[in-house]
Specification:
With 198 residues, the chain is mainly α. The chain folds into two domains: 88 residues, Orthogonal Bundle (Rna Polymerase Sigma Factor, Chain: A), CATH 1.10.1740; 84 residues, Arc Repressor Mutant, subunit A (Orthogonal Bundle).
Length: 198
Amino acid sequence: MVKTKINCSEFSDSEIISKSLEDLDYFRCIYERYEKKLKNYIKKISGFNNDEIEDILQNAFINIWKNINSYDKSMKFSSFLYRIVHNETISYWRKINSKSKNEQSYAINNLKDKDIDNNLDMENSTSKKDEITKILNLLPIKYKEILVLKFLENMDYEEISDILKIPEGTVATRINRAKKAFAKIADKKNLLDKLINY
């Protein structure tokens, strides 16, 4: 008996989750729907190469499949996925950095929300995007990931809280500290004025 190809766009996330518990072919819909977004997220927070990103994503989807029964329907399904991908990325990062763990801590002057929003708007220009990526890559992972989630993935505090498993108040504090660290690095590299005035 030949199975017909599933038209994934016909189903909501919750329908796909239910159906994938009965028929593994429906799990492919989850992969197809979220693969590109999750790859981009991994790349933004890690700077890993494509092979490493593929490895992380493959392991993440294995964990998603293993844990799909434990999905808490009170949170967005995308938050559930991002949390697993986040954890896989951090685990991989720790594994490769366990020998040389020299995470830098930065804390200084403030940067206005509108400035960081404008700075992280990746559609403005290639050179601006390159400069922002360089600065993000210099940040400690906990700051980099929160800026990526807030300003590049456009997630609200509740979603970020679900993904990182931290209280919303901590999300706000960490975003503030991350923006200050971003500003400090940009200032050290004489890029702050350049980025703000783009």
